[in-house]
Amino acid sequence: MYVSRRNYGVCLLSLALALSLVGAGWAQTATPTAPGPANPYLQAVAHLEQAEQQLTAGNLSSALSLVKKSNELFTRFQKDSAAKLAERELSSQESQQLAINQKLATEAQTKADELLKTAAAKKKEAAELRAKGQTDAGDAAERESRDQYLQVQNLSIKSAIYALRNQQIIFRFLAP
Hints:
This protein has 176 residues and is mainly α. It contains 6 helices and no strands. The chain has one domain.
């Protein structure tokens, strides 16, 4: 087999590069993430606070992700703390706040459901207008539909946040 000097040099350089990359990978350790709250309850509350901030900032995908994380933790609390939860009685103030949050969650979800129907109708209207050759009107209807779908998502996340606020009140006894 014939190997030229040039090919030999390229092979040698690529071998050295591969070994240096592998060596660098072995030398690295996992970088520690920012320390979060050690208590899972505090972590769930922190996720909920961040979700509310992200929703206010208009970052819906991040807010939804944080709501899901908080919901997972509160769901775990329901499974793990069922006995303690059955023994716990809520104060009258907590009960009132639960009722308020439930009402706000229901209202937000009702608005979202109504707006979802409107957005779907607008989307259908946009397709019909385009089929008739009215592209400008179809584009306008499509934009309006898209805006309404974003509002639906915003309201649904807001509803979930209100529901999780109730979970926060219910599991407050887990706080240190």
